[in-house]
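Input sequence (295 aa), recorded before submission:
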Amino acid sequence: MDANASQLARLSLEGLSVGDAFGQQFFYPGVVETAKPSQLPPPPWEYTDDSEMAIALVQTLEAKGVIDQDHLAAGFADRYRVDPYRGYGAGARRLLEDINAGGDWRTLSRAMFGGSGSFGNGAAMRVAPLGAWFADASTVIEQATLSAEVTHTHQEGIAGAIAVALAAWWAKERTRTGDDRTPEELLPWIIDQLPKTDVRKRLEWAATYDFETWPFTVASQVGNGLEISAQDTVPFCLWLAASRIDDYAEALWIAARVGGDIDTNCAIIGGIVSLSVGLDGIPQKWRDCRERLKW
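Predicted structure, token format:
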């Protein structure tokens, strides 16, 4: 196991899981009305299936060094069996229950949604640590595709995972090399490497908005996850992550205020921005509020 790769993947996982748990609080009564930077939602912050699946992904990378799809599928199913009440969507629940009953994930994943495969945001929500693990962008694309296919075989679900993984890799490399690449370069760089999908089309749309644009405006045009799809979730998350790449707390507060699939949006953004700001950039108080990760 590459210790440095593991350290970076776990940094991204920390940012992802704290973001996930923070965002989840805004679905509870009274939190939207009372929470503000000087008054965080009351702890403990429980995390969701976003973090559960990201833990399984990191465990696969640490065990195998790459995405072994069988190992990853077994990890997803095992963690679901032990703790199924983490907010899994209906499709994911059926898939993981069928895997635990002895089904082949290859057949089950392809058969979802009438044979089209899932284009939900689940493959994107968990993938940021993968972008932190690998050394080059081409490998990130290949491995992100493999990680997505276990649960999401639709081209949109795969494209969403690739886009988030590339954003995480870019943030890691920008910090590692200390070069002068600017946040404005991130979205065009990702777009150039995506297949022609709705994810790419909406990301191109998001990239037309400068970072001073009111975030609600961007979300109103490209989506904020209300449809729980990759194409409705990933473009806004990447725009917001790029625009606040050096401020973890501000990025997540904005995501919470904009709404939508808040826990997943905050998980995606947190997994990326944490690789730019480092562990110290994730507020300690927030980390203390999140329940301990159950490895």
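Checked by second reader. The chain has a mean pLDDT of 97.
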